[in-house]
């Protein structure tokens, strides 16, 4: 069974109040109240809100207002019966008044909060909405809103609600003569009902092979939750699936045994299609990569390496996701702590927020009046701080997409930003020849560094704020004491070429920098003494990033590549190619398993990495 949820075109925004209900666990959900208790609660509501009910009989707006009041106050009610009655009254009033969105919100709340709710709620809701609402779906947004609500319910694995909404969607689609919506409704119903049946079978018989296979495939192959899915799959009806899952769960340590797990999944993948095949192939690639990381000899390395190259060639979408939408060169990117969201900045004056799983643009943050070249995220990933050609540092709330603050002081283009690990102090450098420290909360300037004689092209700060580093257009990087502003050291080995990028290791001891030269320079922060160089790029290096564990280095270059290096040895481990123009930005995902790049070709990309830092330095291209 292939479990998929496709999204139909949305003709109206779907803003559902799902979060308060969708995360409730089975243990916290109240029992379904009896019809008698519900009736008594409805009578109490009508007595308490007699004035509102009377007004609702005469006026459609009053109906909507009362429905909204009952829905909003439902969570505050003390008994399950009163909560149920409040939601159900809100559903009925909203439907009769033509408020489709509120109708669906109330229906979702009932289905989610009260498992086992009457399945007749869906057809009853359709009846209440009436033929007028069904016939004018473009105006009411009924099909779009129902599709979005049903898909959301499926995503959070609330299959009971999915079934209720799927039935509502099916009826609405038939009335509206919409074959796309009809197909979607059937798919949702088929998949939700199959999973509901499997869950029921597992409760009755925990080792049921067919049910285990259904749930295992859904969790591992559809959702990518292998830790959950494997425990089901090892009990699957198909022997090959069960055998592969058993090998996987054993978590082998040797290269030979890891490659065997990869081979088991690779062979199985050929039997699947679509998303399921991609998930299984991806799992095979993970195990082959793990085998390479601990390969003891050339024979072991070659066998797994060949399979890795084969997978990457034939399944490029798994390893190179493109983010398209900017109309100008993309300068750089930053990933949120949970790894779900990417923030990019561009020469098109915009900041964009993306879903890292799908590549879909979620928000466009507009406000900058010039190119945007720098972005940093606060430690909690709640805010993005951006700057560029309009001389203003802007702070954005990522949830709402709204600009929450402006930090002013620089008089010309801001070339770089850096933030201390506690998120309190922001460092900026600009072409006005100043490097400044700001209190991010208040926006006040707290310190200036340097003599103001050279344009500041890049900045960095140690995690504890002890050191502030500023690179200038003459090829010199100055290390300052973060508190006093005194010069600690200088690094001047970039041969007079503009310094584009600086990054500091987690312990604050080592800095890496890149300039118009082709090398990545590694040097000691306290003394300015060069330690080594990473050689391989054929053009200038624009940005450098360190992996979260500080074992890998990523560098972006005008030669159109991103390269991955072993931090300790300086050996090149991976060359990522695919951009059509120079690459000027790079960052790691929080888990260190992916990198994001930003390019002059107006795109950003996500690249998957094998387990490069787990073992010896093995080149994989």
Automatic annotation (TrEMBL):
Residues 1-26 form the signal peptide. It comes from the Bacteria. Keywords: Repeat, Signal, WD repeat. WD repeats lie at residues 323-364, 365-406, 407-448, 534-575, 576-609. CDD domains: WD40. PANTHER family: F-BOX AND WD REPEAT DOMAIN CONTAINING 7, WD40 REPEAT PROTEIN. This is Uncharacterized protein. The lineage of its organism: Bacteria, Pseudomonadati, Planctomycetota, Planctomycetia, Gemmatales.
């Amino acid at each position: 069974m292939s479990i998929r949820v496709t999204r139909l075109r949305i003709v109206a925004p779907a803003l559902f109040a799902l979060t308060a209900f969708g995360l409730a666990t089975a243990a916290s959900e109240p029992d379904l109240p009896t019809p008698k208790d519900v009736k008594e609660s409805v009578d109490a509501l009508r007595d308490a809100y007699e004035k509102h009910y009377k007004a609702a009989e005469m006026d459609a707006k009053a109906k909507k207002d009362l429905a909204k009041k009952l829905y909003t106050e439902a969570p505050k009610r003390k008994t399950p019966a009163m909560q149920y009655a409040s939601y159900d009254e809100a559903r009925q009033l909203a439907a009769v008044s033509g408020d489709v969105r509120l109708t669906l919100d109330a229906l979702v709340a009932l289905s989610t909060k009260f498992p086992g709710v009457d399945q007749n709620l869906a057809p009853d809701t359709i009846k209440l909405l009436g033929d007028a609402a069904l016939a004018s779906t473009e105006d009411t947004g009924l099909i779009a809103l129902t599709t979005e609500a049903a898909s959301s319910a499926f995503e959070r694995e609330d299959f009971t609600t999915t079934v209720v909404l799927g039935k509502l969607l099916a009826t609405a689609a038939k009335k509206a003569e919409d074959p796309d919506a009809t197909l979607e409704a059937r798919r949702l119903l088929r998949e939700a009902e199959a999973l509901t049946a499997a869950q029921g079978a597992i409760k009755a018989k925990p080792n049921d092979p067919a049910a285990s296979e259904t749930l295992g495939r859904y969790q591992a192959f559809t959702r990518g939750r292998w830790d959950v899915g494997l425990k089901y799959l090892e009990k699957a009806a198909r022997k090959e699936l069960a055998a592969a899952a058993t090998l996987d769960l054993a978590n082998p340590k040797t290269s030979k045994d890891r490659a065997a797990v990869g081979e088991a999944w690779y062979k199985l993948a050929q039997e699947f299609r679509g998303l399921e095949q991609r998930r299984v192939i991806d799992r095979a690639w993970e195990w082959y990569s793990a085998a390479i990381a601990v390969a003891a000899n050339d024979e072991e390395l070659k066998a797994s390496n060949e399979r890795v190259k084969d997978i990457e060639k034939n399944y490029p979408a798994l390893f190179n996701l493109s983010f398209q939408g900017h109309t100008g060169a993309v300068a750089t990117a930053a990933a949120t702590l949970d790894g779900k969201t990417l923030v990019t900045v561009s020469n098109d004056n915009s900041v964009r927020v993306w879903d890292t799983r799908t590549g879909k643009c979620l928000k466009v943050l507009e406000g900058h009046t010039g190119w945007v070249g720098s972005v940093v995220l606060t430690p909690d990933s709640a805010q993005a701080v951006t700057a560029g050609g309009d001389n203003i540092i802007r702070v954005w709330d990522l949830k709402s997409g709204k600009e929450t603050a402006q930090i002013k002081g620089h008089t010309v283009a801001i070339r770089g930003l850096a933030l201390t690990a506690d998120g309190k102090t922001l460092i900026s450098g600009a072409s006005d020849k100043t490097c400044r420290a700001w209190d991010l909360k208040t926006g006040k300037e707290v310190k200036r560094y340097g003599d103001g004689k050279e344009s500041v092209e890049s900045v960095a700060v140690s995690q504890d704020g002890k050191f502030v580093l500023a690179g200038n257009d003459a090829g010199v990087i100055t290390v300052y004491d973060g508190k006093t502003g005194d010069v600690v050291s200088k690094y001047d080995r970039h041969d007079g070429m503009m310094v584009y990028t600086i990054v500091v290791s987690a312990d604050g001891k080592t800095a890496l920098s890149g300039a118009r030269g082709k090398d990545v320079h590694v040097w000691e922060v306290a003394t300015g003494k060069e330690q080594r160089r990473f050689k391989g790029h054929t053009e200038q290096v624009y940005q450098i990033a360190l992996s979260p564990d500080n074992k890998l280095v990523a560098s972006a270059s005008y030669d159109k590549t991103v390269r991955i290096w072993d931090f300790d040895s300086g050996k090149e481990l991976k060359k990522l190619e695919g951009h059509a123009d120079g690459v000027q930005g790079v960052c790691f995902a929080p888990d260190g398993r992916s990198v994001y790049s930003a390019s002059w070709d107006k795109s950003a990309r996500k690249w998957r990495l094998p387990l490069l830092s787990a073992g010896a330095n093995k080149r994989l291209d």
